[in-house]
Amino acid sequence: MNKSPIIILLCVLLFTSCDKYLDVQPKGKRLLETVADYDAWLNNVNSIANAIPNELNQLQDNLDLPNISNPSTSVNDWIYTWRRQYADETSTPPVIWKDFYETIYYFNTVLEGIDEASGGTPQQKQSLKAEALLGRAFSYLYLVNLYGKSYNAGTASEDLAVPFVTSNDLNTPTPARSTVQAIYNHIIDDITKALPHLPQDNSKNRFRGSVAAAYSVLARTYLYMGDYTNAAKYAQLALDNGPDEVLDYAALPSAAGIKDLITRPGTIYARLLKTTYTQYTPTLDYLKSFDVKDLRLAYHYVYLGDYTFTKRGEVYHLGIGVAYSGAYPNCGTSVEEMRLILAECAARDHDLPKAIDELDKLRKARFKPDDYEKFESTDEEEVLQKVLAERNFEFAFNGMRWFDMRRLDAEDRMPEVNRYDGQGNVIATLPPHSLKYTLQIPIQVLYFNPEWPQNPWSD
Amino acid sequence: MQKTAFDVRPAWWRRRHLTKIFMVMKLTYLLLTAFMVQASAKGVAQHITYSARNAPIEQVFAEIKKQTGYFFLYTEAVLEKARPVTIEVKDMPLAKFLDEVFRKQPLVYTIASRTITVTTASNVKVYAEREPAATPVASIRLKVTDSAGAPLSGASVTVRNKKLSGITDEKGELTLDVEAGDVVLVSFIGYETKRITVTVAMLAAAGNVVLVLHRSAAKLDEVEVAINTGYQQIRPEQSTGSTYTLRTKEYESRINTSNFLDGLQNKIPGLLINNDVKFEDNNLFQIRGISTIKGNRNPLIVVDGYPTDLSLEMIDPNEIESVTVLKDAAAATIYGARSSNGVIIVERKKAKAGNMRVNFRSTAGFRPKENYARYRWADDASAIVVDYEKLTNLNASATSWGSQQTTSGSFLSASPAKLIMFHWRSNTDPITTEERDRQLAELASYNNAADYSRLFLRASSVLTYNLDMSGGSDRMLYYLTANYTRNNAMRVNNNDGIFRLSARATMKMTDRLSLDLNTDFQEGRKNTAPVPDINNILPYERFEDEGGNPVAMATGSKVTPLYNQYIQSLGLLDNMYYPLLEMNEVSDKARYVNNRITAHFRYKIGSGFNLSFGGVYESVRSDNRHLANESSAEARQIVNYYTKPATSGGGFIYNIPKGAFLKQQASSTQGFTLRAQVNYDKQVAIDHSFNVILGAEVRKLVRSSNTTSYFGYNDQTLFQQSVDFKVISTNFSSTYAYVNGALSYNSLFNQAYTDDRFVSGYSNLVYSYQGKYSVTGSIRIDQSNLFGTDPKYRYKPLWSVGAAWNIHRENFMQDITWVRSLKLRMAHGFNGNVAKDALPQVIASDVLNTLNPAAPIPSLRILSYANSGLRWEQTRNFNLGINYEIFKGISGSIDYYIKKSTDILATNQIDATRGATSALINEASIRNSGLEVSLQADWISRRRFNWNTGLVFAHNKSKVLQVYNADLTAGSGSWQYIAGSYANYLKGYEVGALFNYRYAGLDNTGYPLIYDSEGKIKPLFTNDAKILDVSYAGSSIPVFNLGLSNRVDVGNWYVYCMINYFGNFKIRVPVPNASEKRPLKGAGNYWKQPGDENIPGILPNPTTSSGQQHYYHIANSDKYTVNGSYLTIGDVTAAYSFRGSRLLRRTGINNMELKVQASNLYTVAFNSYNYSLATGSYAKPYVTPTYTAAIAINF
């Protein structure tokens, strides 16, 4: 038994070095460890740059599906007809919902790990953290406007929106649904927290955060909240801190001049659709609302024929642009959007000259000089409608129209929208103030969170 | 046996009949020894094989010493009375052999501590004839037991001062008349001899004296009958786990040539080895079903006490001493996180002390060529294929022929028959209908199967040579072995060889310290050349012309001869594939070197404690060299693909230079396991016995590999040319030969590296009471560099408990003499498994962000999500079993088990709110349950005749309890259930579930009809009712397997036969399809016009693409999904041993044995198509046997 100390010693030796022995980094795979790792992580394409679900375009009023089958089995058709749920059973991925939370996962991964990252200066860490806060806030801005009611200061603190997820560990339980007010508070707080640390310039990669990007997202946030004073304030701040020139289509030799979004002029905060190579059929009404000389028509739509737009399904909106130059629409923020926010806020603030001036700054870049006619009006509503129409032209099929539809509906400006089959029969209707303006929580999500209340609905 | 309980008779009677009694006892002993041999599984370690005629007894002693290492103690005077010995035995236990020898001698012997003492029988007589002593002797009843309390029958008892000896009966008892002061020696083979002096107290105790013998301290060459778990030796009666041990005799009844696993097939209940049935592209090699999805499914293999990560080729089948399989938790938990699939423990042959023994073995096997004439291919395959092309191309595009001569040519890989049709349809230079039919008829008239066999196949052969030498003394034993195996595959130019060397030594350094040192070296080579697969060749294509020159073939050429002419006219290389050239121009040479060293120290501390520590180091280096010479189609086609016209001045830019293509892959694996362990093995008081181990283990496994490639290479000059690899790594569009296919940059240049580390602590306890009851418990904690942040899972140990009851030792069983042994055991616990594709934190991989193609920036993408809840996969294991031995020589076991594997890592659906819709998480669950029965019976056992039957039966039923199957959701169409392997893991079904349509014939357009769930007939794909349109057929994995072996020994001969059965599973029979390259019989019998659908057995119309799709689907209908059960006659072996022949004695050869064997002789399937998977494919209706001859000589 006198040998037992040797045994004990052996065991102790074995186990004390355990932690060190087991702590090895697998090769060929990268664990996020250094500040540079997190920097590269934010350059991700598939989940951060290509972040906005194409399905948002299916909801909007200017899309036409002339070949829709009835009844339909395709998810896109279901969304197009504002079906209650976009799935029949719980084992399919929940469209739209999953895409935003996937992006949020990337940002949460930065927020959870950046403090322990090695290398880099504290400033760099702060900056990456700020970018992640901004990016996450931007994703929540979509979610709160899809699954929560339109912002109404009176009820926002009771209206349920989406859960505010901050962990990237699959083992962490999903939190309960937050209120619309809470999500908006998070968005504004996070961006405010991020602002002091954000880089001034993102011109090398517009998908990354910047001070201007933060202001621009705030401008959009306040616009959606109906706080036009703040919206205008931050839109102006965005322009003051970043690019302020709209991309001049008239100065381009052709559609081929619209280049990759990552460095495209006029872009403040870039986001692409999940699937960028898109072909959308616009409704005839929408096409007809264009001025035929509008370069946006010429640069993004094919098979325009004689511009009479009489047959459904002939004209396509091409995401890549007619010159196949990578002219994909920006779902993020841009100088154009800021100008239109300024115009809208001015119009609502009875400052028509300012509104018309901002409109002019955008519109004259969308027509050849010879074709351009400046918009003039003294009617407040007419100016506002012009701004809204211009938003619809400028933001064609970039996933933003649905949010404008919701805003307009909340202030009784949105007419009834109908869907037609190939024979022109109405197959779905979105009446004013329809509960359908707030999407249902997907059944695939409720399956995992059965205690959540569902949003109200009526067919 | 009651006749030996002779204490009911008066003492004087007993004394007078002592001689007689001893004779009776001798007989009893003989019988007992035989039983004991059975009871201890496969016999006592020491066996004698010997034959002699009128040999002096000293010679017999010398032989025993040589074969067993036992010493003899006698005086010359004693031997004077000895008679010459005539005896002939084979593999007889030592004790039995000694009895046999001493039966006719006036001598008696006793064994104590490896020493056999010989005295004259007259000494006994003297006592018997002696006058009664003045002081009457008293009777004492001695009971001799082992440390576990089990009676030792046949123990030798000697009263030293009285020269009196006897043997204990089956209860371990013997009644002796002794007086105080007598010295009694009790000995038993394998146990330490006990010496007691009879005291007055003992006599006063009415003569009940229990003597406990302890196992003698590990004798160097002592082979334990115990169950070896790799960590611990557990006596069979104390084991509570489900284990099965296969020993040399069973294993070597057949000739084992190269693959060690072949000899295990259907010999171990619960171990399923089947190379015919594939699951997820792997052969079946599993214990008790499949219990993981992503993890390793193979059992863990342990050699020389340590797990091995080397390939199974390193195990030389000639060296198998025993194979033990640990199946349930009680047995295998000690292996912790790698034991879910069970453990296979291989013990290799060991040296015996004594003079050097030399064994030489050689085997030669061959397998005849395929006999294509017997295949189920259509006799008129060429005509069917040609007709099919004719029918489907009657309206071929008029420009298809002409466009073959331009860069935009379509149908670049059209078959020759199709090309004739194009030519006929051509709008430029058409041929006449007569010419077309003449050309087609010419094609149809030739079938290349015979030429294929002549040019590309040969009878395959395997040659092995094996030499081993062993011997040594008590202090040092050595075992050296060398093996060479060469295998010529059936396809020409394909062969492999392996050379193995192994040296093993056991050294007893001091009385306390001993060392086992094993080193193994293997070097293997494998040469592969591209011989085409006959199934991928059109039946009418020729390999050589009349002059014997190689001819190009459509398949593999990628382009038609017409287009080839065109690009050659431009100046590109010949794009055609000449199979007869290619197999000499392209080669894959693989070479690997394995090294394995184990060192294991044992240190005896005393008081039942000992310490063992040691480790294993393994290393594998392998190189693979793929060379395609400049003239090979492979190299030419690569060059053509990357050739572009020069931007100016004509000519070409060769992005890949002309010349050979060389790809070299090097990989290495290095691993070690270190272990330190404290053992405690002791009997406390008389009834309690403990066997406890406590230890820790460290393991590390590093794998790395790299790949590099060279172009424009010359293997002679070693010249190679530089290439701009950006051409390969970015999208390159080929100008001339896009059908050739692009190279993948990552397969040309690659690096891989993994480093897995484990630290484990474990303990196992066996407690036994009176040898009747035993309980076991084991616990193990594993930690690795892959796992573990959540404390909830981090130190979650795997554990097991078990209990066993040796019923036959109960008093109430003592009268039921036909039950020799009966043990009931039960065990419950957990095993683990590792799946390594996830970590607790985010894993990312590098990828370029090319949103700005001109200036790519580094970026990362996610590979796996952070999951702090990640943990080992777990299998909860319940086992209930019995071990039995009834009558003489009939023994076996029955086991029932339920294995529920939970926390199986699988891609499961998760709440999308967490950032992903599915992730690799511990959520899947599979249950396996089954029954296993084994039987070993010596039906007839005579001196020169023995008939032994071995039966192994196993049943395993699996059910997937929980899994997320992304391919099969409630919304999935019916076709998804039958497509591919989507249903392999489907909740509520067996693993490997197969679904099928209910076939209902054809409609009047030649398309299939099915019955819907209500029995109504409807066209396939109409109003698809999802899962209701298909029905569940069963699993594709056999539920039953059965092995039946019979061996009959007659004198020096034996004949052995093994029958295998795999049952209750479903297989798909291919549908004869005229569009295939080598259609099956009946393929031409397809629907051509309305009305044909009434012809019984008519096939759908294959001439449209939709028709082809229907062929795919009816292959998955109940008409073609059949019972896969089949039976094979695995091995028939005959052997003759020259043991004892004069010829051998004169040459000094100890024994010579000749064996011949035919394997894989016959198969029968239990379905209407008689399709047995053993044949390899449906087209082949028979099995090709392997014939092997072996010679074994030992000196």
Nutshell version of this structure?
Chain A has 459 residues and is mainly α. Chain A has 18 helices and twelve strands.
Q: Which terms would index this structure?
A:
heterodimer, A: 459 residues, mainly alpha, three-stranded antiparallel β-sheet, 18 helices, 8% strand, B: 1195 residues, alpha+beta, 23 helices, 54 strands
3D structure, described in words:
The complex is a heterodimer of chains A (459) and B (1195). Chain A is mostly helical and 459 residues long. Chain A has 18 helices and 12 strands. In chain A, the strands form 5 sheets. Chain A has a 3-stranded antiparallel beta sheet. In chain A, helix 14 packs antiparallel against helix 16. The longest helix of chain A is centred in the first third of the chain and has 26 residues. Chain A is globular, with a radius of gyration of 25 Å. The N and C termini of chain A lie far apart (83 Å). The mean pLDDT of chain A is 91. With 1195 residues, chain B is of the alpha+beta class. Chain B contains 23 helices and 54 strands. Chain B has a 22-stranded antiparallel β-barrel, surrounded by 4 helices. In chain B, a hairpin with a 4-residue loop joins strand 7 and strand 8. The longest helix of chain B has 22 residues. Chain B starts with 10 loop residues before the first helix and ends with a strand. The N terminus of chain B is likely disordered. At the A-B interface, helix 1, helix 2, strand 1, helix 3 and helix 4 of A face strand 27, strand 28, strand 33, strand 37 and strand 38 of B.
Helix/strand layout:
The complex is a heterodimer of chains A (459) and B (1195).
Chain A: H1 4-16, H2 18-22, E1 30-31, H3 35-41, H4 45-49, E2 50-52, H5 55-59, H6 75-80, H7 97-113, H8 122-147, E3 160-163, E4 177-179, H9 180-194, H10 211-225, H11 228-241, E5 267-269, E6 272-273, E7 279-280, H12 284-289, H13 295-300, E8 301-302, E9 316-318, E10 333-334, H14 335-348, H15 352-363, H16 380-394, H17 401-410, E11 417-420, E12 426-430, H18 443-448
Parallel strand pairs in A: 2-6
Antiparallel strand pairs in A: 3-4, 5-10, 7-9, 8-9, 11-12
Chain B: H1 11-16, H2 18-39, E1 47-55, H3 57-68, E2 71-73, H4 76-80, E3 85-93, H5 94-103, E4 107-112, E5 115-120, H6 122-129, E6 138-145, E7 156-159, E8 164-167, E9 173-178, E10 183-187, E11 194-197, H7 200-204, E12 208-212, E13 227-228, E14 233-234, E15 243-247, H8 248-251, E16 271-279, E17 282-287, E18 300-303, E19 306-307, E20 320-326, H9 329-332, E21 343-348, E22 354-367, H10 381-392, H11 400-403, H12 416-425, H13 433-444, H14 449-456, E23 460-472, E24 476-488, E25 495-508, E26 513-528, H15 561-570, H16 579-585, E27 586-606, E28 609-628, H17 633-641, E29 643-645, E30 652-654, E31 660-684, E32 688-713, H18 726-729, H19 745-748, E33 750-769, E34 773-784, H20 791-794, E35 798-806, E36 819-833, E37 843-849, E38 857-864, E39 873-886, E40 890-909, E41 918-941, E42 945-962, H21 974-978, E43 993-997, E44 999-1002, E45 1008-1011, E46 1017-1019, E47 1030-1035, E48 1040-1050, E49 1053-1063, E50 1066-1068, H22 1105-1114, E51 1121-1123, E52 1126-1137, H23 1142-1147, E53 1151-1165, E54 1186-1194
Parallel strand pairs in B: 2-5, 6-12, 18-21
Antiparallel strand pairs in B: 1-3, 4-5, 6-9, 7-8, 7-10, 10-11, 13-14, 15-20, 16-17, 18-19, 20-21, 22-23, 22-54, 23-24, 24-25, 25-26, 26-27, 27-28, 28-31, 29-30, 31-32, 32-33, 33-34, 34-35, 35-36, 36-39, 37-38, 39-40, 40-41, 41-42, 42-48, 43-47, 44-45, 45-46, 48-49, 49-52, 50-51, 52-53, 53-54
Helix pairs in contact in B: 10-13, 12-13
